[in-house]
Amino acid sequence: MTALSLTVNGAPVKGDVEDRTLLVHFLRDHLHLTGTHVGCDTSQCGACVVHVNGRAVKSCTMFAVQANGDAVLTIEGLGQDGRLHPVQAAFQEHHGLQCGFCTPGMIMTAVDMLARHKQLDETTIRHELEGNICRCTGYLNIIKAIRAAAEAR
Amino acid sequence: MYTSLFRYLRPETLAEAEALFQQSSDARYLAGGQTLIPTMKQRLASPAELIDIGRISSLSFIRRAGDRLTIGAATPHAEVAASAEVRNAIPALAALAGLIGDPAVRHKGTLGGSIANNDPAADYPAGLLALGATAKTTQRTIAADVFFTGMFETALEAGEIVTEVVFPVPRRAGYAKFPNPASRYAMVGVFVAVHTDGVRVAVTGAAPCVFRVPEMEAALVRDFRPEALAQIAVAADGLNSDLFASAEYRAHLVNVMARRAVAAAML
Description:
A: Ubiquitin-like (UB roll); 5 strands; globular; B: alpha+beta; Uridine Diphospho-n-acetylenolpyruvylglucosamine Reductase, domain 2; 2 domains; 4-stranded antiparallel β-sheet
């Protein structure tokens, strides 16, 4: 067991976990932040994407102890004062989801993508979305939402 | 819980990491974990101790000095891909790093982890071999020519840690890969580099271990154009064959990717 001390969505968090606890399970089962999803569990689908120290990572492919001392941001921490984050609002506006299972990971990936690219064309967005799988939308409205969020900033 | 029980250790220095390894009978080093953690989740690896060397800050850097580009072993792929220094010195290497996995994997996965693992379908081994790079470790210096010894096998001894890789800056270079559409690993990837003393062509994904193609190198010395490779076939004997591609198809892809790599190097 390891005593963890980290920041999650801006607030200090402590926990005692087995070293083998994956970050996604610490978030979901210990902190009850169930917005971060487990999809494929094999590092491919991206439903579990969160930010650690400002970078998008797959929380099913990282142990919670690796984030000890770090700052974690999940989908629950994106909106401010009851308002949606602009990327969340763009997904709503452009219907960038159907069942919604992949959406938290898609949005966390999109926020990271926007932070790293001043300009985002469709080819870049498609390349950047290679680690996120959606089985409903066919991606078109997801891309539309990310483009809109990029143009609106 | 997916993995076996283990103890997580976070040393501050390389010396401390090596000491921890010596004290354990069953330790593994953890860098980015993008291969090791999935492997542990399937219980194909069950180390008793996991020694996290991914956070040792002296292992994460990119430095250009004259005709040498040096990259710290714990530098994530995303940093190599985005580095102005790498893009300027060896754009093909930055491009290679930007094609590994996906953005989240590139934020965690490291150069040292990739080459120490030596997956037959990993990208970096082709880059190191074609560029004639040298891996520095906690114990010695190992040329890429003798570093990659077989499938998931390297010249590294137990406990030895890759600390940095030194890349000679080539006159020009190009990388082309045919990625597996699901995993993004190379079904075949070919790195071509033109040095002052010759051309090196290295192939990953096709065989159990990265390899060079001397016939292509000789042809490109005479005539550095994609067309120069048109008649050079690579034998399918000994190449990988799986549900994604037969050995014959991989042999065909080696030629196609080599020509695309040459074209990329000419840009």
